[in-house]
User: What shape does this take?
Amino acid sequence: MVTCILWAVVISLDRVEQVNSRLPADQQIGFTFGVIGPERHWRFEKEYERFFPDRSLRRKERILWLLGAVFLAGLVLCAAPLF
Assistant: This one.
């Protein structure tokens, strides 16, 4: 569970870095809250689609978030009878 979520965060940050590397310095997208946030910004998503039309990293990131959420829900359901 934690591994999936951590990999999703790493991929998310990598997506931001890849987009920023292709943008001019004055148009780069900053990190909201210091670390997480720009990948949810509409401008970031549009720029990502423009530079990477195959969207493979976005797909991998979303799959990992989904797996992390499913594992977390399973953990909660399994641990609920203990309390």
In short: The CA atoms of residues 28 and 62 lie 23 Å apart.
